[in-house]
Amino acid sequence: MYRRWGFVRLLKLLLIRFVRLQGTPNEISRGVALGIAIGMTPTFGFQMVIAAFWAWVLKESKVAAILGVWITNPLTAPFIYALEYETGRTMLGMDFVSLPHELTFATLSNLGWQVILPLCVGSLVWTVFSWFAAYYLCLKLAPMAKRLRVPRWPRKPTS
């Protein structure tokens, strides 16, 4: 039954792509860390393009960077962005944002800066932390992942 779940299949395909990456563990770790760091920024929707561009500029593994971006997916994004917002709000000493009583352009634009500024500041903190954590974790896991053999999905018998 779990084979029909798209999310489980996606995780397996990402694992297979990670196992098949070419390069030394250091090269792969730098690419994955770059992707995860970009995945932690509030650029949802453009992260894969940004990761591929910076991997090309820095001559890192583009596939590893794009795989790393998937740290932020529709399931994890609300938790990551909430954590980053709270971190930034706490660092800046800002109050919680409350919804305005009237929805005018002026109130919405003011509300935008009350959300975007703490989100950007918090994302800087978590981006740096996640880059270091991802690099060293991937550096240790990449050699073990190369030895993995991922089994194929069992095929249905054809009649």
From TrEMBL:
Stretches that traverse the bilayer: 31-56, 63-83, 115-139
InterPro entries: DUF2062 (IPR018639)
Keyword annotations from UniProtKB, A to Z: Membrane, Transmembrane, Transmembrane helix
Residue span, DUF2062 domain: 9-148
Highest taxon, organism lineage: Bacteria
Protein name (record): DUF2062 domain-containing protein
